[in-house]
Design goal:
Layout: H1 2-21, E1 33-40, E2 46-53, H2 57-69, H3 71-79, E3 89-94, H4 97-119
Parallel strand pairs: 2-3
Antiparallel strand pairs: 1-2
Helix pairs in contact: 1-3
Length: 121
Amino acid sequence: MQNRINRINEELQKVIAEVIRNLKDPRINHSLVSVVNVAAASDLSQAKVYISVLADDEEQNKVIAQLKSAEGFIRHEASEKIDLRVMPKLLFTLDHSIQEGAHINEILKQIERKDSLKGSE
């Protein structure tokens, strides 16, 4: 059962990402929006769609609000591309993992620079 849900999650992620990329909504900068993960409930009644938006907090919140308002359309478009008897309700939520990873990377670079300065003394 878990393997089936994992395959559905992967397929939903691909399809939803494609639908979002093709949205003709000028308020969403598609180059800054990524579908990071999808976690569907075992009964497929709903699926959490984790979205990463490379922008400030205000812009992130606007994008999530736009996706939530377009949920019906996104759900309909996705249902035509994926073979499921029931298309789950989509719950869009912000995922900060990419931003956190970039922040950690920057901290590591700073530490590396400090270490190289100490080594050259």
